């Protein structure tokens, strides 16, 4: 797959003159996956990934849904990880967080942009795209295999729509996305790369998270099958009886409190996360600009913060 991606680096970029970051210098696909980007170049590249590969637009809604500001203020958050106490500021600096959105009951509790990002900025999903594909497949039938590229092909042949078209029609527009998203293709006019390469705004990632928390119901219409979200976010058992902390392309909770709440997350390399807590109706979106694709202990560190945020908002 990487060889295929690297072969596409010279493609013509998506043209969007109004995009505020369109003229920034960016790195190459090789630099991304080798972890060879400088800090500034990583930020520029992660918000311009549709300039690297062929990409297809996911059209926004003509009637964006509101994400109102909450009357509540996020309390000061501290959490313990590996016997050390951290603040949210520590987390933000240590993870090179580029943006963060916290929703409680569909309202914005906290919204942060760094490194020149704004509400217009799109940011790469990396493997969060897998969870988006899983959810999209859930609008057609129940699905629990791990090969998202096959899923993209299956979806195309089942619906006659590309992944981008079907996402726009079934989820992106109904949930009220305020901005167009883009998705990498395996070739010009080809098929979307189901395991990566989605890019959208912070609030639209938040809307997607809230859509899932709402069990895929929009304006009274059930877009996802009944109980699909609970199944998607629950641990699964392998044929040999081993339980794994992975659902339908969503990572499931490893902690007692997380499992009690039915919490799960979509995660991508370089520090991208959508955390969802159904019991407390909390969604947290984090963009990061790590210098390298992975960090040791990333999942546990993230979840320590996320659970502290949920606790700070008060459990119902």
In spatial order, strands of the major sheet run: 5-4-16-15-14-13
Count of helix runs: 11
Give the class-level CATH name.
Alpha Beta
Number of domains: 1
Percent helix range: 25-40%
Parts with pLDDT < 50 across at least 5 consecutive residues: 1-16, 139-146
- Based on helices, strands and strand pairing, what is the structural class? alpha+beta
The CATH superfamily title: DD-peptidase/beta-lactamase superfamily
Could you tell me the mean pLDDT?
89
The biggest sheet amounts to: 6 strands, antiparallel
| N→C terminal distance | 45 Å
Global shape? globular
Beta percentage is 15-25%
Indicate the CATH architecture.
Answer: 3-Layer(aba) Sandwich
* Order of H and E elements: HHHEEEHEEEHHHEEHEEHEEEHEEEH
CATH topology: Beta-lactamase
* Number of E-state strands: 16
Labels describing this entry:
316 residues, alpha+beta, Beta-lactamase, six-stranded antiparallel sheet, four-stranded antiparallel sheet, globular, disordered N terminus
């Amino acid at each position: 797959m990487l060889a295929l991606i690297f072969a596409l680096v010279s493609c013509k970029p998506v043209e969007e003159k109004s995009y505020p970051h369109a003229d920034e210098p960016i790195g190459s696909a090789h630099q991304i996956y080798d972890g060879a980007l400088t800090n500034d170049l990583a930020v520029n590249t992660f918000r311009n990934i549709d300039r690297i590969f062929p990409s297809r637009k996911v059209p926004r809604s003509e009637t964006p849904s509101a994400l109102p500001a909450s009357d509540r203020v996020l309390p000061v958050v501290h959490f313990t990880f590996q016997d050390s106490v951290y603040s949210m500021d520590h987390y933000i600096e240590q993870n090179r967080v580029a943006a963060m959105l916290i929703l409680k009951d569909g309202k914005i509790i906290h919204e942060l942009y760094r490194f020149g990002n704004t509400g217009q900025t799109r940011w790469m999903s990396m493997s969060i795209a897998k969870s988006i594909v899983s959810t999209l497949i859930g609008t057609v039938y129940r699905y629990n295999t791990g090969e998202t590229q096959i899923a993209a092909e299956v979806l195309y042949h089942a619906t006659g729509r590309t992944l981008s078209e079907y996402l726009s029609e079934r989820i992106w527009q109904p949930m009220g996305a305020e901005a167009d998203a883009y998705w990498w293709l395996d070739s010009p006019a080809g098929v979307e790369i189901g395991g990566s390469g989605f890019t959208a705004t912070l609030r639209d990632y938040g809307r997607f998270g809230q859509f899932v928390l709402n069990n895929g119901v929009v304006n009274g219409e059930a877009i996802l099958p009944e109980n699909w979200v609970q199944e998607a976010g629950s641990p699964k058992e392998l044929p040999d009886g081993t339980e794994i902390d992975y659902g339908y392309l969503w990572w499931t909770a490893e902690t007692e409190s997380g499992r009690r709440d039915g919490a799960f997350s979509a995660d991508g390399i370089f520090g991208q996360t959508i955390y969802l807590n159904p019991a407390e109706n909390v969604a947290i979106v984090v963009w990061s600009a790590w210098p390298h694709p992975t960090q040791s202990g990333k999942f546990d560190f993230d979840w320590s913060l996320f659970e502290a945020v949920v606790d700070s908002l008060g459990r119902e």
